[in-house]
Amino acid sequence: MQKKKLLKYNIPIILIHGDFVKYNMKKRENKLALIDWEFSRFGLPLFDLFHFIFQGYLQIKKKSIPFCIKKVFSKKYIIHFHFYLNKLQISEQLIKPLFIIYL
Predict the structure, then answer these.
(1) Cα separation of 85 and 11, whole Å?
(2) 66-89 residue pLDDT tens
(3) Which residues have C-beta within 8 Å of that of residue 51, sequence separation ≥ 6?
């Protein structure tokens, strides 16, 4: 379903982790490795960033869903989404629809 929606907006898709959170990262000798790829799929890498922020607050910090959504769209993170989308030449107006597709 996600793939069709992304292709509709002419958005490039690649293999993403799918469960990009702190507890699926291991650091050894200044190298970072991602583990637990069972939810990997094709999608927009921005989805991994959405997931890292949203689930970090929801699962790890035990915050409410409305709080987590506000955090995703806070100034702290939104500038990174804008930068990313500009580099891919994707309209910044798609940030909220892309977040909805992520959810």
Answers:
(1) 10
(2) 999 999 999 999 999 999 888 888
(3) 18, 19, 20, 21, 102
Nearest residue to 85 via CA among 54, 35, 50, 33 = 50
CA–CA separation, 42 vs 16, rounded Å? 6
pLDDT number for residue 1:
56
Number of other residues whose CB lies within 10 A of the CB of residue 72: 22
Whose CA is closest to 94, among 47, 31, 32? 47
The angle that helices 45-55 and 75-87 make with each other, rounded to 10 degrees, is: 170
Query: 């490795």: which residue's tokens?
Result: 33
> Residues in the chain with pLDDT < 50?
none
d(CA 89, CA 103): 23
Instruction: Give the predicted TM-score (pTM) of the model.
Output: 0.85
User: Which residues are CB-neighbours of 88 under 8 A, at least 6 positions away?
Assistant: 11, 12
